[in-house]
Design goal:
By secondary structure, this protein is α+β, with helices and mostly antiparallel strands. Helix content is about 25%, strand content about 30%. Strand 4 and strand 5 form a beta hairpin. It is globular, with a radius of gyration of 23 Å.
Length: about 130
């Protein structure tokens, strides 16, 4: 009998651990940010303020408003340091932060700008040539 108990112990342990961690805990669903949707900017990548805007994603706002904000954000950057400039002020009521830049020194950099106003979010990746 003792042998059977020892043989079943690893199975009982695995069963107990199977319920730990992972999975979808819906109890925090109210604290999650809304899912972002992609905007179709095909053909307009070079007319949105940076050398190339490669993606625009939105939540709580439509794509046409997002495009206007992205253009204004890049104009703010250019007014504050040229091609390599940064925008530290609100743009159209949105607060924008920029992630780290992946740079080819003296040539270009890639970055992601994340702009928020209330529950609205606009996230954009771009390439800026020098």
């Amino acid at each position: 009998m003792k042998r059977l108990s020892l043989a079943l112990f690893p199975l009982a342990l695995l069963a107990a651990l199977a319920g730990c961690g992972g999975g979808d805990d819906s109890s925090d669903a109210g604290t999650r940010a809304p899912a972002l949707s992609n905007c179709d900017i095909n053909g307009r990548q070079q007319s949105l303020g940076a050398s190339y805007v490669t993606t625009i994603e939105v939540a709580g706002v439509d794509c046409s408003e997002a495009e206007k904000l992205i253009v204004a954000y890049h104009h703010c950057r250019e007014r504050n340091g040229g091609a390599g400039g940064t925008c530290k002020t609100a743009v159209q009521g949105y607060t924008c932060t920029e992630g780290p830049r992946q740079e080819v020194p003296g040539v270009q950099f890639n970055a992601i700008a994340d702009c928020r106003k209330g529950s609205a979010e606009i996230k954009s990746s771009y390439t800026q040539n020098f």
